[in-house]
Amino acid sequence: MGIREFHIKLKAFRVKRFFFGRRRNRWSANKPSWLIPITHGHHVVDHHVIKGGSGDSDFDSVVIQREQMDHTELWYFGIFDAAVGDGVTKYMQSHFFGKKLKECHMRRKTKETLKRAYLGVRTKIKEAHKPEEETCRISSTSVMVINGEKLVIANMGDYRTVLCRNGVAYQIIGRHNQSTKRHWYRKLFSGTKYSKGSELVVGSDRIDSDTEFLILASNGIWEVMKNQEAVNLVRHIEDPQEAAECLTKEALIRMSKGNISCLIIRFD
């Protein structure tokens, strides 16, 4: 290789680093999906601690699942209240993970299947309740990570997922609230809840070099702290298990009365 050729290649490399940054190589198309670093940790607080020793045993369930479909790596994460249970997960198992899908159709199919899973479970729960009974409040949140590049997020009720991008908290919102180019997320300083009752919101986004981590959490977290506040509390904690425990402990300190469950996903 001549000196001139080497100089040109070195210059091109520097220009690439200038535009994409030192972390951008994580999303190289040539990098095998299973090598993309995703770490996670979760913590669920015993209801006896929250409710002073009551006999209530309606715990949240946490799901963490990794699937390899040809050249596509899928991570499925979720926090579901006792009413939802494993209903959404079972539907995804039989109607999504068991299918052989092309990567180009993966995100659209994920959104469609998640939506059908949630709506189906919600319908069954409502049908099981008599009209004179108090309205059942259904809450859960789940995330699908596709090849470490794409996110599909579903929120129902008071549980939600918050994304930290370059230190800023973003929350999934419905199409009627679109106000930015990234229409599925909006910076929320107020902590306003957009999901009322058992409303379902499903959205998608890309994981880029500024995407740091996701917080999946129950109502017991969000009723005592705002989105940005939660991000600020755990952003400096590299271990996702430690970060999840930190958020749940903080919710207890603040005397939260709701379900306290948290799952942290880091993109290192």
Automatic annotation (TrEMBL):
InterPro entries: PP2C (IPR015655), PPM-type-like_dom_sf (IPR036457), PPM-type_phosphatase-like_dom (IPR001932). Pfam families: PP2C (PF00481). This is PPM-type phosphatase domain-containing protein. Residues 56-267 form the PPM-type phosphatase domain. It comes from the Eukaryota. It comes from Mucuna pruriens. The lineage of its organism: Eukaryota, Viridiplantae, Streptophyta, Embryophyta, Tracheophyta. Coiled coil: none annotated. GO terms for molecular function: protein serine/threonine phosphatase activity.
